[in-house]
Write a structure and sequence with these properties.
Monomer. It catalyses: Release of N-terminal amino acids, preferentially methionine, from peptides and arylamides. Keywords: Aminopeptidase, Hydrolase, Metal-binding, Protease. Pfam families: Peptidase_M24 (PF00557). The protein is α+β, with helices and mostly antiparallel strands. It has one domain: Creatinase/methionine aminopeptidase superfamily (Creatine Amidinohydrolase), CATH 3.90.230.10. Helix content is about 25%, strand content about 25%. The protein is built from four helices and 15 strands. It has helices spanning about 10-30, 40-50, 120-135, 145-155; strands spanning about 55, 70, 75, 90-100, 105-115, 160-165, 170, 180, 200, 205, 215, 220-225, 230, 235-240, 245. The longest helix has 24 residues, at about 10-30. The protein is globular.
């Protein structure tokens, strides 16, 4: 496993990529409402990314046809935008996006409410987000990677939720997906020792029901097998000698 340690210069570029992506997500949150199509969200997102002279990380990545992954309700990740897919009151929507800034990637995801949503849906979104923060308590130099994984899974599973196993987080840098893979559930081993300068895309994907998922016929969209709601929360994280730095964070 070749995990890259980023130089000071590379970290600066990744900070800028993260800052830009945080702004993309902040602007996209403002347009989410009943009646908008997922294709409109994709177009707005791509336009914002390009306005910063950045390239969308996802567009044409392994053949993916859009710039923003837009996943609704039981869709876990990689939903393909469509002009015929219209958001409705009560939906939850996960937006996953990445940007390339001067050759370096950032990657982040958020799940949002569409209008008024059920208490159960709201709780799933909140627990998924908090599971990320439970995990990054261990994202410090000298700790081991799978301490993050265990903390995420333990927290989400304490609410009876299913932690997706077929999809994991990843390293990130001049490539969108780098070593190491980062599961969101307990592993038998401790994993590699974390070092300052590592950059990780940590991304809990949590189902309200079982953890099992399946792929739709488009070969991209992943859904919960039991049809339960799913939420996704992700940031690009820099490991430091102290507290981790969240490169894609916005309030």
């Amino acid at each position: 496993m070749a995990v890259t340690i980023k130089s000071d210069r590379e970290i600066e570029l990744m900070r800028e990529a993260g800052k830009i992506l945080a702004n993309v997500h902040k602007e996209l949150e403002k347009v989410i409402r009943p009646g908008i199509s997922t294709m409109d969200i994709n177009k707005i997102g791509e336009d914002i990314i390009r306005s910063y002279d950045c390239i969308p990380s996802f567009l044409n990545y392994n053949g993916y046809p859009a710039s923003i992954c837009v996943s609704i309700n039981d869709e876990v990740v990689h939903g393909i935008p469509s002009k015929d897919r219209i958001l409705m009151e009560g939906d939850i929507i996960s937006l996953d996006a990445g940007v390339i800034y001067k050759g370096f990637h950032s990657d982040a995801a958020r799940t949002h409410a569409v209008g008024e949503i059920s208490a159960d849906a709201k709780k799933l979104i909140e627990v998924t987000k908090q599971s990320f923060f439970e995990g990054i308590k261990f994202a410090k130099e000298g700790n081991h990677l799978f301490e993050i994984s265990e903390a995420i899974g333990r927290y989400a599973e304490s609410f009876g939720y299913g932690v997706v196993r077929d999809l994991v987080g990843h390293g990130i840098g001049c490539n969108l997906h780098e070593d190491p893979q980062i599961p969101n559930f307990k592993q038998r081993r401790r994993g590699l020792k974390l070092q300052a300068g590592m950059t990780l895309a940590i991304e809990p994907m949590i189902n309200a029901g079982r953890y099992d998922v399946e792929w739709l016929e488009d070969d991209w969209t992943v859904v919960s097998e039991d049809g339960s709601l799913s939420a996704h929360y992700e940031n690009t994280v820099l490991i430091t000698k102290g507290e981790p730095e969240l490169l894609t964070m916005y309030e």
